[in-house]
Automatic annotation (TrEMBL):
GO molecular function: acetoacetyl-CoA reductase activity
Stored Pfam families: adh_short_C2 (PF13561)
Protein name: Acetoacetyl-CoA reductase
Species of origin: Croceibacterium soli
GO cellular component, one term: cytoplasm
First-tier enzyme category under EC: oxidoreductase
Family membership noted in the UniProt record: Belongs to the short-chain dehydrogenases/reductases (SDR) family.
PROSITE patterns named in the record: ADH_SHORT
Keywords of the record: Oxidoreductase
Gene name, Swiss-Prot/TrEMBL: phbB
Species classification: Bacteria, Pseudomonadati, Pseudomonadota, Alphaproteobacteria, Sphingomonadales
GO biological process: monocarboxylic acid metabolic process; poly-hydroxybutyrate biosynthetic process
Keyword ATP-binding found: no
EC numbers on record: 1.1.1.36
Ranges for domain Ketoreductase: 3-178
Length: 240
């Protein structure tokens, strides 16, 4: 029987590409999403993969959602923490809710999901956790103290959990994407985006499937000696 993978925020953008790539690698894949029913329906109809709705920032809902997936599909052996939001603004304009929502979903979501699946992985002696960080968590970004803090936190979370998982056959790694052509980046004003692209040595935005291929490697059997690492996939924009 193939291994079960869950991808949070898997119904569109980078998450959808990750779901499709992992499915192509032979895994049984389920997506989670927050509430965009149209995208979730299109995802399931077009790919044949199920989509489960819950807010990864909600601890109880996440535990219950993962229990439901395990009852209906099987034990979760691969977790991809991909769900994320932006609430950009300079510190002077940022509200506490903007700060808190981003911390709760982007960073808290990783904790909640790991709490739900880590015990089972430990018991079975095998697991793969891949967390999607960001170039802006490595380098910082004007107008994103909330997002940069949460993504930077993901990189610390990854290294700490990798140490806890290592002797149970669980690897924990992160990917730090650069700018990828998804809905999230479509929200960036065009004049700002032009300046960003000018700073990318390869001269273009990345594609979601370029992130997905990195995830597929880190989730594979062959990557068992890779843990606590961050793979930057950013067109050379930030060499860390
Ligand atoms: P999108 O905005 O295109 O998609 C976000 C996905 O996350 C959606 O499926 C959304 O669900 C889901 N989601 C949002 N909030 C929650 C929540 N509370 N609970 C569960 N699911 C949620 O994002 P991208 O594909 O662009 O980004 C994916 C990840 O990659 C994010 O973590 C992002 O920070 C990171 N990243 C993206 C970069 C980029 O350039 N695009 C660069 C660096 C990092 P729904 O559809 O229901 O709203």
């Amino acid at each position: 029987m193939s291994r079960v993978a869950i991808v949070t925020g898997g119904t569109r953008g980078i998450g959808r590409a990750i779901c499709e790539t992992l499915k192509d690698q032979g895994l049984t894949v389920v997506a989670n999403y927050a509430g965009n029913e149209e995208k979730a329906r299109a995802f399931s109809e077009e790919t044949g993969m199920p989509a489960y709705k819950w807010d990864v920032g909600d601890h109880e809902a996440t535990l219950e959602g993962c229990r439901q997936v395990e009852r209906e599909v099987g034990p979760i052996e691969v977790l991809v923490n991909n769900a994320g939001i932006t609430r950009d603004g300079t510190l002077l304009k940022m509200t506490f809710d903007d700060w808190y929502d981003v911390m709760r979903i982007n960073l808290g979501g990783c904790f909640n999901m790991a709490k739900a699946v880590f015990p089972g992985m430990k018991e079975r002696g095998w697991g793969r956790i891949v967390n999607i960080g960001s170039i802006n968590g490595q380098a910082g970004q004007y107008g994103q103290v909330n997002y940069a803090a949460a993504k930077s936190g993901i990189h610390g979370f990854t290294k700490a959990l990798a140490q806890e998982g290592a002797r149970f056959g669980i690897t924990v790694n992160a990917i730090a994407p650069g700018y990828i052509d998804t809905d999230m980046v479509a929200a960036v004003p065009e004049n700002v985006l032009e300046k960003i692209v000018a700073r990318i040595p390869v001269g273009r935005l990345g594609h979601a499937d370029e992130i997905a291929r990195g995830v597929a490697f880190l989730a594979s059997e062959e990557a068992g000696f890779v843990t606590g690492s961050t793979m930057s996939i950013n067109g050379g924009q930030h060499m860390y």
